[in-house]
Amino acid sequence: MSLPVLVAIVALGIALSVAAVHFTGGSKTATLAGTDQALSRFAEDFPDEVATVVRLTADARTAFLDIGRGRIGIVHSIGDCFLTRIVTPQDVAVLNAGDVNTVSFRLADFTWKGGRFRFASAADAQGVLEALELQHPNSAREAA
Asked: What is the DSSP string of 84-111?
């Protein structure tokens, strides 16, 4: 078999594989339908935790849940699945408020680094920012 024919067959095979994954839902991004879905998804992984406040991002891909004792629960979409975490201010390596509706942070956790999150309201962004800040006056956060 000639090299050009072999290259064409391989390229076609790769293209068909990518198309098959895409059309079967492999490129779908999960979104949260509302606060109830965020609460139920978080409860699947952490059934003993009770959230008092739920804050959804503007794109409905992430929810931040106040769960008390200086901790915050996170439900974040990755692909068509949801990742859940319990985070404390000590877990946050970098915390920054981009504008009044945006919070960005980087976690010390190597499995998920955090990100930039935009909220529909400044109050939600401020609530998440306050929950993730250390309460010690001598603790400084590095700007992202």
From this structure: EEEE-GGGEEEEEE-STTEEEEEES-SS
